[in-house]
Amino acid sequence: MNYLQERILKDGTVIDEKILKIDSFLNHQIDPKVMHEIQSNFFDYFKSREITKVLTIEASGIAPAIMVASHFQVPMLFAKKSEPSTLAATGKYSTRVHSFTKDKDSDVIISKEYLNADDKVLIIDDFLANGEASLGLIDLVNQAGAEVVGVGICVEKSFQPGRQRLLEAGVDLYSICRIASLADNKVTFVDEDAE
Ligand code: 5GP
């Protein structure tokens, strides 16, 4: 069992069969020790790949993404859920994402200034559920003509369709924790040795 799995069992709260709350160390209060473990897991998996930028979506992806970007020594870029008045005249890439936790659509944007056709992008997010956020970020990278190197997820809920959708899109997906079920108020992890 890795450190993130241990912390989920110790401090996570199962809200219902589909939602896990880990506000005490990742989604609200952030534990730097967890962040350190997360970035070293992602670094180990993707270290042989050329990466020029780490991309995430605000807000909860930002903490793990900046840690990973720091290790790869590349910039971290996050897609914004509202358009800032400071957006450059060069314009924006925009895509519509359905939020799993808020159950609403929003247009997320990145400035064209910060993503170029020669970028090799590692996408990082906190959770993977239906894959909407990751697929939206992939769409933004594609609009820029850049390359998606892979997607790194802290907590994948493997009983939801996100994993399958990303694999079907040909993505190199790496998840630190894979949850098989949140039924009966209990977190059960995927037994990867048995797969
Ligand atoms: P997806 O876009 O894959 O459907 O959902 C991923 C996004 O929804 C993540 O960025 C995350 O913020 C949020 N999310 C999905 N499932 C959960 C969950 O069980 N707990 C929390 N805290 N956030 C979740």
UniProtKB/TrEMBL annotation:
GO CC annotations on file: cytoplasm
Family membership: Belongs to the purine/pyrimidine phosphoribosyltransferase family. Xpt subfamily.
Q: State the pathway, as annotated in the record.
A: Purine metabolism; XMP biosynthesis via salvage pathway; XMP from xanthine: step 1/1
Q: What is its EC number?
A: 2.4.2.22
Q: What is this protein's gene name?
A: xpt
Query: Could you tell me what this protein does?
Result: Converts the preformed base xanthine, a product of nucleic acid breakdown, to xanthosine 5'-monophosphate (XMP), so it can be reused for RNA or DNA synthesis.
Q: Which residues form the Phosphoribosyltransferase domain?
A: 33-158
Q: Name one GO molecular function term.
A: xanthine phosphoribosyltransferase activity
Name by which UniProt lists this protein? Xanthine phosphoribosyltransferase
A Pfam match: Pribosyltran
Q: What enzyme category does the UniProt record give?
A: transferase
Q: Which InterPro entries match?
A: PRTase-like (IPR029057), PRTase_dom (IPR000836), Pur/Pyrimidine_PRTase (IPR050118), Xanthine_PRibTrfase (IPR010079)
GO:BP terms for this protein?
purine ribonucleoside salvage; xanthine metabolic process; XMP salvage
| UniProt keyword terms in alphabetical order | Cytoplasm, Glycosyltransferase, Purine salvage, Transferase
Q: Where along the sequence do coiled-coil regions lie?
A: none
The UniProt subunit note reads as follows:
Homodimer.
Q: Which reaction(s) does its UniProt entry say it catalyses?
A: XMP + diphosphate = xanthine + 5-phospho-alpha-D-ribose 1-diphosphate
Location in the cell reads:
Cytoplasm
Q: What is the lineage of its organism?
A: Bacteria, Bacillati, Bacillota, Bacilli, Lactobacillales
